[in-house]
Design a protein that fits this description.
Order of helices and strands: EEEEEEEEEHEEEEEEEEEEE
Strand order of the largest sheet: 13-14-15-16-20
Shape: globular
Helix content: under 10%
Number of strands: 20
Largest sheet: 5 strands, mixed
CATH architecture: 6 Propeller
Oligomer: single chain
CATH topology: Neuraminidase
Length: about 290
C-alpha cells in the first residue's frame, strides 16, 4: 500500500511516498543515544532516560521524496483539498493553492491582516470536515491588537473561483495579547467529533511563561472549540477557579504540531523544548504539561 506524507521546508514543498504495506513491521534499529554531551540546563527529566533516549535508524529504501515546488516563501501550513491539490499558507500572509504538478496560484485574497514580525504570521490551516459542501476554511495567524498581539483563528469560505476567501471572520482570540514576537503555537486540526483543536504558545518571555499553567489564560494551551469558535462541550476545568471553558490541556511551551491518530482518534501534540529538544504527547484531558 502506498502512503504519502507532506513536508514543508524553507521555500519548498516535498512529498514523501512509501510503498510499504501499512501493517508491515518497519525496519528499525535502535542505537546508542544520539546526544552524549553534558546537559546545558539544570532542568530535571520527568523520567529516567527522557533526555538520553536511544537513537533510531530506519530503513528508508522504500521511501521516495519528490520536490513539488520551490516557489514558496516560508510555507507554514498545508491542507489537502478533495481533488488532491494543496492549500498552503506562507508566513508573510499569503494563502495559495499548489497542484501535484507544482503549479502555484496567485495569493488568495480576503484574509484579515497578519502580523508577521518574529515568529508571527499566517500559520496553520485546515478544512471544515464538510468542506465538499460548505467550502469553509479555518486558519490561525498572529493578529495585532491594541495591547500587543496574539494567536487568532479565522474562518471563511473559499470562493468557487478560488480567488478569495468570502465572509472572513475572526472566531477566536487567545488572550491576553502581549507585545512580543515569539511562541504563537498556531496549529489547527479537526478531531473526530467535529470540533476544532488549536495550539497556542506561552509567548516565551519570563513575564508570560507562568501563564501556561494558569487556566484563566489562553497562553500555552491546547484549545478545543466548536466550528463557531465557542468552547466545545465536555472540556475539563483543571480544578482552578476562573478556568476558561475552551481549554483542553495546559502547561505547554510552544506547541506547533497537532495530529489525530488515524486508528484511535487520539490527539497527538508536539512542541519545542527550551534547549533544542522536542516533546511529543498523546493528550487525554485533563492533561497538564510540565512547562
Amino acid at each position: 500500500m502506498k502512503r504519502s506524507f507532506l513536508y514543508l521546508f524553507s521555500g519548498s514543498l516535498a512529498i514523501w511516498s512509501c510503498s510499504r504495506d501499512k501493517d508491515a513491521t518497519p525496519d528499525v534499529t535502535t542505537t546508542n543515544p544520539v546526544e552524549t554531551t553534558a546537559a546545558n540546563t539544570t532542568y530535571s527529566p520527568a523520567f529516567v532516560g527522557q533526555t538520553r533516549i536511544g537513537g533510531v535508524t530506519t530503513d528508508a529504501s522504500s521511501y521516495r521524496a519528490t520536490v513539488v515546488t520551490s516557489a514558496l516563501t516560508s510555507p507554514w501550513g498545508v491542507a489537502s483539498l478533495p481533488d488532491g491539490r494543496l492549500l498552503i499558507t506562507e508566513k508573510a500572509g499569503q494563502l495559495r493553492i499548489v497542484t501535484a504538478a507544482g503549479a502555484v496560484s496567485a495569493p488568495i485574497t480576503g484574509l484579515p491582516a497578519v502580523n508577521s514580525a518574529g515568529q508571527g504570521g499566517l500559520l496553520g490551516v485546515c478544512l471544515d470536515p464538510d468542506f465538499a459542501t460548505n467550502r469553509l476554511v479555518y486558519w490561525s495567524f498572529a493578529e495585532a491588537r491594541p495591547t500587543g498581539n496574539l494567536t487568532a483563528i479565522g474562518k471563511g469560505r473559499l470562493a468557487t473561483d478560488e480567488r478569495t476567501i468570502e465572509a472572513a471572520a475572526v472566531i477566536y482570540r487567545a488572550e491576553p495579547a502581549y507585545a512580543g514576537t515569539l511562541h504563537y503555537g498556531g496549529r489547527v486540526v479537526f478531531d473526530r467529533t467535529g470540533n476544532l483543536i488549536i495550539s497556542t504558545g506561552e509567548r516565551s518571555d519570563l513575564a508570560t511563561r507562568p501563564q501556561a499553567q494558569v487556566a484563566s489564560s489562553a497562553l500555552g494551551k491546547v484549545i478545543r472549540l466548536t466550528k463557531t469558535g465557542q468552547p466545545a462541550p465536555g472540556n475539563p476545568t483543571f480544578g482552578q477557579s476562573g478556568a476558561l471553558p475552551e481549554l483542553y490541556s495546559i502547561g505547554h511551551r510552544n506547541p506547533q504540531g497537532l495530529a489525530i491518530h488515524p486508528a484511535t482518534g487520539e490527539i497527538w501534540q508536539s512542541e519545542h523544548g527550551p534547549r533544542g529538544g522536542r516533546a511529543h504527547f498523546a493528550i487525554s484531558p485533563p492533561w497538564r504539561g510540565e512547562w
